Amino acid sequence: MEEQEQAHTYDAAKYDRPSVTIDVVIFTLIERELHVLLVQRKRWPYEGFWAIPGGFINMDESLEQAARRELEEETGVRDVYLEQLYTFGDPQRDPRTRVISVAYMALVRAEAQHLRVSDESHAVRWFPVRALPEALAFDHEQVLSYAIGRLRSKLEYTTLAFQLLPELFSILELKHTYEQILGEKLDKGNFYRKIKESGLLEETTHVREGRGRPTRLWRFRTDRSGDKQFVFRWREDRVAR
Amino acid sequence: MEEQEQAHTYDAAKYDRPSVTIDVVIFTLIERELHVLLVQRKRWPYEGFWAIPGGFINMDESLEQAARRELEEETGVRDVYLEQLYTFGDPQRDPRTRVISVAYMALVRAEAQHLRVSDESHAVRWFPVRALPEALAFDHEQVLSYAIGRLRSKLEYTTLAFQLLPELFSILELKHTYEQILGEKLDKGNFYRKIKESGLLEETTHVREGRGRPTRLWRFRTDRSGDKQFVFRWREDRVAR
DNA sequence: CTATGATAGTGTTAGTTATACACTATCTAA
DNA sequence: TTAGATAGTGTATAACTAACACTATCATAG
User: Fold this and answer.
1) Most buried pick, A5, A107, A148, B89, via CB within 10 A?
2) For B138, which of A2, A15, A237 is closest by C-beta distance?
């Protein structure tokens, strides 16, 4: 709370203030595999290390606005799923000064990807979450594993997976996405049954041809207000947040 | 991320920095009812309004250390359950200056309560969550409802409820605690069955006499490493976080 | 000393959901 | 025409949920 101050005599300089940054863990699916966006640092500290994209917050923007700004600066995408994760504030996490970082997670569709290398970094790249760089800058390994954990746990009781898929997809593609993120195989028959019973999907007339039997394509229903919108569970296990 | 700076030429004054505070939503059970601790503000802004206890973060302490410090300053308790909730950072949330607040939730046992009125506030009081003040300071209504939502949802798949109970308790007391927080009645028989099957409780030889049949007292098992420690579910419904 | 009310605790059953796995369907390409 | 590949359906059993009836043990009133 904010009650250490005298009325009308508040002096902003009275207390030391930490720097506040926003880091955005950006996930996408590339060739059916879960990837995360990292940038390679150009300067001290952690020069040359890969890091989660982010930056300082402006004084006139909300945390979410800052996260959306960062996201757009790095990938050019807007209107994507964004969620606050956790705030990391260990006094030693940045060697320059006290930096408190509010971490966000974003899910973007594979389609819209126009990566931009900012002048603060050497490179920007998508990394498969199963093959990440050995060491990341700052405490970003911790941030990233927190994000992956959250993604997994929310996948089990929300419709988050749809945020990663294109507008039209097959049921087995959806199943594959779940398997990718959960890291385990799901039963085909049970998946079909559950997803159909959920009423979350809308059948389309489109099909996609492949090597075997062509597959029917579906769309995620965004209309339906209440029912089951966010309850689509696969397992009982759950992790603490 | 923190990469806008030149190596070794980092100038802390280069960017405006927001103030960062920690607010701690402290829950307890008093006479079997869920209560939350609020303090009454002495100064502008929101003079006279009730607020969630909190304060500015020191430059050399972690977020959690700051939360524990606040908690101890208000209630004198240590070693309690503490969890980071969410970070609130709307630019307009405090009329004095830009203030970003990291909210924590603490669960304390009814026993240890030595409230201290700090010189920043008129009063400190436990409020039943079913009878809160009409309006709270800042965006604290939002913070509080977030905390209650989190408490509810975690109750369903963790052993959080035990943090609110004394060391020895009866199974029906535990059931009552669940009912209090979830806001719904649970079936006695099913509760007995589930809680016993969970293996979370340890029977003691103690009983408590009352008006009817005396009740056996149980203890929460802290030993058991893995199994079911944090899976004790009551309902299927779940809310997004 | 017995009945009544109050609280504690157990048992049972029907309906639902999960799990595993076998089966059928429709396409391409040899 | 058949084999391989992928898509999609059906079903039996086990496990779990939800509702509720039942039994147990105390205090106290008559």
Assistant:
1) B89
2) A2
